[in-house]
Amino acid sequence: MRTERPAGVCEARTARAIVVCVAGLPDREREVRDLLQTRQLHPAATLALRTYGPELYGFLAGQLQNVTDADEVFSQLTEDLWRGLPEFEWRCSLRTWLYLLARHAASRFRVSPWNRGGRTGDSRLDEQIAQVRSQTEPWLRTDVKDRLRQLRDSLDPDDRLILVLRLDRGLSWNEVALVTLGEERASAESLRRESARLRKRFQDLKEDLRVRAQRAGLLEADS
Q1: 27, 73, 68: which is closest to 53 by C-alpha?
Q2: What CA–CA distance (Å, rounded) separates 186 from 192?
Q3: Three-state DSSP class for residue 191
Q4: Spatial contact of 38 and 44, defined as CB atoms under 8 Å apart
Q5: Which phi and psi (to 5°) does residue 80 adopt?
Q6: How far apart are CA 34 and CA 165, in angstroms?
Q7: Are 58 and 136 in contact (CB under 8 A)?
Q8: In angstroms, how far is the first alpha carbon of the chain from the final one?
Q9: pLDDT digits (tens, 9 = 90+) for 32-83
């Protein structure tokens, strides 16, 4: 008898490698899955964007540090969602998978900004894209005034990625590892090694930011 995997749980290549989603919305993800099972792609993609679009747009703006570039990459992410959603195997949460897509889209843009891929999805999603941008941009304008965040934004993009996914988005270390590895089917051993590396780097980054904040006068120096 086949046992249905509960929503919000990510599974890597082996049954022993379970990644629990700590910050997703299982009810929404279950609804997206139900829509896909009845071949309702547009409602499923729309719901996915409504659920996670604002935080993904904010994530891209922080990674790229340019709202115009974030617009371009978010549009490409939407196309990737449209093309990939029918084949998504639910080996991890929808939220984690979308962050994986977002990182891939941002990486492609950095390598070749003019090679963004063509628009092949449904133009009806454009309304959802515009809505996500309008919801997120006021938050971004407030964020840039935060001096501590500016210090963090001065870090290497890969280091910012760790902090954003772990601190801002609340992903588990195994979920962060799935995104940084860029592979939905990562093995249990690969996840273990990457999670250990990320934890160590996270500790180093916290110390680095503490020193930077002291130098900027945002924290009192150690006595």
Answers
A1: 73
A2: 10
A3: helix
A4: no
A5: -65, -40
A6: 27
A7: yes
A8: 64
A9: 999 999 999 999 999 999 899 988 998 898 888 877 888 889 999 999 999 9
